[in-house]
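Lab channel / #folding
Pinned by the channel admin:
"Please post every new chain as: sequence first, then the structure tokens as a reply. Keep commentary short and put observations after the output so the thread stays searchable."

First post following the new format, from NK:
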Amino acid sequence: MTTKKRTDRKTTPTPPGKANKPKAAAKKETRPRRRFKASQKNVALILAGGVGARANLMMPKQFVIVNDKPVVIHTLEIFDRNRQIDEIVVVVLEGWEAVMERYIQYFDIRKVAHMVPGGNTGQESIHSGVECLRKHYAPDDIIIIHDAVRPLVTDEIINSNISGVLLNGNAVTVIPTTEALLHCDDRATSTRIINRYTTMRTQTPQSLRLEKLAWLHDEAAKRGIKNTVATCTLLIELGETVHFAKGDTSNFKITTTSDIKLFEAYLNSRRN
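Reply from TO:
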């Protein structure tokens, strides 16, 4: 697996008549460059490796344009602006790396440091990201794993995840279950109720230190666990306790074309 280190950045052109005044041009920057911490870093691992089969679209849903931007850029901008996030690693659908790179440059996403191709499953894509993280970050760095197709995540949710890792060792974003839940085996009938007050609905981010994340994937390989659906489920499968961070109903995952319309409606309501 190869890792692409991003070193180029879009720069602001020097205005006419300012060619000999570099200091004046530097003041034109609208946003300060990121400042590195001396010790532990907070690194966002953005998962943009899905094919979006359920959305039945002509392209992967993370690249669908909504209000003049791809969905993944809406997501990346939130992490790029967050003051607690130091760097971003993107796991991208194989074959779409060049497209992602162009979008990152065009929309001036400054914190993306590495980009790697994803795998055939969510677990494989996270594992691809883990191998990149091992090479470039310290064991005690905090990794904030987030779906590229959850573009309405908030700073409060991200910061709560980081605080949760510092306090408990991991943080899984959740919201309460409000609907009636029925157990079924055949996807068609049910004879058993599940108590909704004993369940929580998980979202992303799901966060932990790199050392623990790497251990999870190493241990899963040893035990033959190949297709767990999320980091939180892998933690539980390996006997760990997960700790909750407060999510929000607006932090939904774009899965269908209806979700894309809902996301667009959210954006338009904010404009108004």
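NK: The two ends are 45 Å apart (CA to CA).
TO: also worth noting, The longest helix spans residues 122-136.
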